[in-house]
Amino acid sequence: MSDATVHPHAYTHGYAPAVLGGHRRRSAANSASYLLAHLRPGQRLLDVGSGAGTITADLARAVAPGSVTAVEVSEEAAALTRAELERQGIAAEVIVADAHALPFPDHAFNVVHAHQVLQHVADPVAMLVELRRVTVPGGIVAVRDADYPGFRWYPDEPRMDRWLELYLQAAEANGGHPDAGRRLLAWAHAAGLEDVEPGASTWCYATPEDRAWWADSWAGRISATALAAQLVREGRAEQAELDAIAGAWRAWATDPDGWFLVPHGEIIARA
């Protein structure tokens, strides 16, 4: 194994139940509230990196009777979006495409949205240039990404420190940018977006129910998903260590003082 090993375009999390269970809890209210005030009935909206489809469905309702198009990087991921939209009775086009080279004409959409996507792509600035291209003049490019190095939790737990260290290594080896949240404004400026409204928001897990859910998700991700397989395959950790980290997550969840903060950067940019 070499720390220089890079696997561009690999999706670090994968699509195991532990991952999808977390993604399906996302909604426009808890993950795109900064955008909602800008949405109007009749708009044409593009959702890039639609994933589990729950945010896509909420955005579709906000712009109805406008149209919604969703883009994913693989047929496996696109099928997840289609299934959720069908379950909720939402009509939308879902296609597979590269976010660096979207198959749409210039100025095709009033609003283009991407949630937790720039952290995973090979060239975030090139993607933002492309998002701007397909947005009508004066339309909105809305992007939100987490900042993993900024995660904070209490009580301190060395095995959770190790969890974050391992995740950062894996994400960077996959060509990702796990500190994307703090870079969004700079990337937007580099992409030629000048009218940019920057912001930030957080997810906080501190109630017993939220701690149990968050810990169960990450315990599963670190020990039994594509992330775990990558860490073992590349020699970054042994399975026994990953299982111990999963145990630390579950122990943290039982602490009545347990608290976890996930910071996000956000931008609303006018094309």
UniProtKB/TrEMBL annotation:
<keyword id="KW-0808">Transferase</keyword>
<keyword id="KW-0489">Methyltransferase</keyword>
<dbReference type="InterPro" id="IPR013216">
    <property type="entry name" value="Methyltransf_11"/>
</dbReference>
<dbReference type="InterPro" id="IPR029063">
    <property type="entry name" value="SAM-dependent_MTases_sf"/>
</dbReference>
<protein>
    <submittedName>
        <fullName>Methyltransferase domain-containing protein</fullName>
    </submittedName>
</protein>
<feature type="domain" description="Methyltransferase type 11">
    <location>
        <begin position="46"/>
        <end position="142"/>
    </location>
</feature>
<dbReference type="GO" id="GO:0008168">
    <property type="term" value="F:methyltransferase activity"/>
</dbReference>
<dbReference type="Pfam" id="PF08241">
    <property type="entry name" value="Methyltransf_11"/>
</dbReference>
<dbReference type="GO" id="GO:0032259">
    <property type="term" value="P:methylation"/>
</dbReference>
